[in-house]
Design goal:
The protein is elongated, with a radius of gyration of 21 Å. With 91 residues, it is mainly alpha-helical.
Length: 91
């Protein structure tokens, strides 16, 4: 699916495509290789991509956090939480 400017919708981009396109836009903005007429559209696209990347990272983090408790069932012990009050996993 494409948007009004012939670009792929940010939701349809793979993570790698999104990162690559965001890097390209940032490079154009940093080096001044963009005309003033395209500046607003490019900036808006960069924000849209950054928001989509953030959504994907937050979704992946939530999914991993939901799966982690399953690890405790594998060894019969609680998975370490990384804080000083968690049970030791050393037997």
């Amino acid at each position: 699916m494409t948007d009004n400017h012939g670009l792929m919708d940010v939701e349809a981009l793979s993570y790698e495509q999104a990162i690559s396109e965001l890097d390209q836009i940032i490079n154009q903005l940093d080096t001044g290789q963009i005309d003033i007429d395209s500046l607003q559209n490019s900036f808006r696209r960069a924000v849209d991509i950054a928001e989509e990347i953030d959504r994907r990272i937050m979704r992946a983090k939530s999914e991993v956090e939901a799966i982690l408790p399953r690890l405790s069932g594998l060894s019969g012990k609680a998975a370490p939480s990384g804080d000083a009050t968690s049970e030791s996993i050393v037997e």
